Amino acid sequence: MSEMNDVKNYLIGLGASKVGFADVKGLASEFVDLPNGISLVLKIPKEAMYLVKEEEYEEYWKCFHAQIDKLTQIALDGEEYIKNLGYDAFALTMTRNECDMERLLSILPYKTIATKSGLGWIGRSALFVTPEYGSAVALGAILTDMPLDFDEPITDSQCDECTNCQDACPVNAINPLKWNDRLNREDIIDIETCGEYIIGQYKAGLGCTKCMSECKLTLEYLKG
Ligand code: SF4
Ligand code: SF4
Which domain holds residue 61? Predict the structure, then answer.
């Protein structure tokens, strides 16, 4: 499994904050039939999070999109690295992982690969949450047929009794139910109410990232 460690070290060396391995057999077969997933987590820099606090959304979105570009490059470099080892690989970049705009869901959600890789869980907010950075993260992935030693999946919320994100949501879109991998997204968040509010904010040159910025674990990351 030293090749697997080499891949992980390579991706961390490129700047990924966390890397995990998951069994995703069949989950993306409608567009690419590769059974193993490599989840990539990139923390949002603290400086960008301070922009959210100041409601300087234009600058924040620039930083956020720069992080997505970085993540895309890490995934593409990882794809090439794995192919050079003799395996098939497919960087699941945003443009390749088409989003169903009606359901606001990707073909294979990054969050699914990330929880299956044991890198974190889905918060009450329906955002992906890590112990180290809260929900101040961006996610990416690579699919491959390279043999991987899978990490232990996380199947239940680790949000304990915290309700920070629910309390912070200006339109009460977050339900009290805590996530587990047997629930649907609609069980934990009213995505239409959230989406409508965000679109309105976005048109006004603003945004809504309250559930991310007020996440208990995001606040701990910013203090650390
Ligand atoms: S993005 Fe805003 S509106 Fe949507 S759930 Fe989070 S806090 Fe609520
Ligand atoms: S604010 Fe609390 S409940 Fe919401 S996602 Fe973060 S840890 Fe979980």
Answer: 2-223
Would you state the pLDDT for residue 161? Answer: 92
Supply 193's token pair.
Answer: 């109410």
Instruction: Give the binding-site residues of ligand 1, using a 6 Å CB cut-off.
Output: 125, 168-169, 171, 173-174, 194, 197-198, 208, 210-211
Pairing status of strand 128-129 against strand 18-23: unpaired
What would the mean pLDDT of 45-73 be, rounded to a whole number?
92
pTM tops 0.85: yes
Number of structural domains the chain divides into: 1
**Ligand 2 atom 6: residue of nearest CA:** 215
Which of left, alpha, beta for 183 (phi over 0: left; psi -120 to 50: alpha)?
A: beta
| The pairing of beta strand 105-106 with beta strand 99-100 | antiparallel
